[in-house]
Amino acid sequence: MSQIPALLAILLGGVAIAVQAPLNGALGRTLGAALPAAAVSFAVGFVALIVLSFATVGNPFGRLGAVPLWQWGGGLVGAYYVWSVIWGVPTLGVVTAMAALILGQMAGALMLDAVGAFGVPVQPVSLTRILAVMMVAGGLVLSRL
Prior knowledge:
Layout: H1 4-31, H2 34-56, H3 73-92, H4 94-115, H5 127-143
């Protein structure tokens, strides 16, 4: 199976995150605070995902009762991410905020891959992967010069 469609989807997801940051930042300025802006952003996304779920999956929430408690944590982590970007973009700018976001993602991903957290296949830590994280850290530093 080709990895190209997945790679393109994730690359577009990265563009979406970059676009989402200033949109949500503007929402935060309009509302006067980051937390209500994050709540509104999540509410809009929630409605869109509910509609798409019912439009594309026969019984999208039929197994919801079987979901282990720990799997609900993704929503909490996502809420923190959205709030942190809304709060940070006005101070840092979009490029620096995205560089910090990507550095955090890369460092966290390196650790999660190393232990196979949450059922992902183990990917060993290697010098190449560490250098990739360090290059992103360099990009973060360069974004502030």
